[in-house]
Amino acid sequence: MFVAAARVARAGDGESARRLGPVRPHDLRHTYAGRLVRAGIPLQQVQKLLGHASIRTTQRYASLGDSQWEQVRAALD
Q1: I need a surface site. Which of 38, 45, 56, 62 has the fewest CB within 10 A?
Q2: CA-CA distances (angstroms) from residue 24 to 28, 30, 37?
Q3: Global pTM?
Q4: 34 CB contacts (<8 Å, ≥6 apart)?
Q5: Phi, psi of 19 (to 5 degrees)
């Protein structure tokens, strides 16, 4: 069922809509982790949600959280 849904998945609206191409469950996992980090969720919480045994595995998403620096700067102002 997932494979069939991924095969017909599209992004965009109207004539600008394009086919997403191959989507794997692991791709969705990466998207989930990336969105959590961008939303400011601490890496330790993302680690627990993803079930990573080591924080080092979760740190691959750390660069996505650059928006967290804005929160730090705001706290120091």
Answers
A1: 56
A2: 7, 10, 21
A3: 0.65
A4: 61, 64
A5: -70, 140
- Secondary structure (3-state) at 10: strand
Helix (H) or strand (E) holding 18: strand 18-19
Answer whether residue 45 shows pLDDT above 80: yes
Residue 23 has pLDDT above 70, yes or no: yes
The predicted structure's pLDDT at residue 67: 63
How far, in Å, CA of 2 to CA of 28, rounded? 12
Query: Which band of pLDDT confidence, cut at 50, 70 and 90, is reported for residue 56?
Result: very high
User: Distance between CA atoms of 10 and 14, rounded to whole angstroms?
Assistant: 10
